Amino acid sequence: MGLFDRLAARDRQLAETRYVGRTSASDEAAARRREAHRARVARDGDAAGRPFPRRLFRGD
């Protein structure tokens, strides 16, 4: 068994015992992104998905 195998086995053992019930950092970041998205959609509504008026692109 190599060093990497022992470290990987130790990580699995810690994950199964010590970190049970805790949320991971990536799960917390994903939850923050979801909440920011919901807030942005609630704030901007449909207006964020509408195209710009055509006159802005004609160079007038």
Task: Write out key terms for the chains shown.
60 residues, mainly alpha, 2 helices, elongated
Number of domain modules: 1
Shape: elongated
Order of helices and strands: HH
What is the gyration radius calculated from CA atoms?
A: 24 Å
How would you state the average pLDDT, rounded?
77
Output the number of helix runs: 2
Could you characterize the architecture of this molecule?
The chain is mainly α. The protein has one domain (3-46). Helices cover 58% and strands 0% of the residues. The protein has 2 helices and no strands. It is elongated, with a radius of gyration of 24 Å. The mean pLDDT is 77.
How are the SSEs ordered, and which strands pair?
Elements: H1 3-17, H2 25-44
Write a brief structural summary.
The chain is an all-alpha fold and 60 residues long.
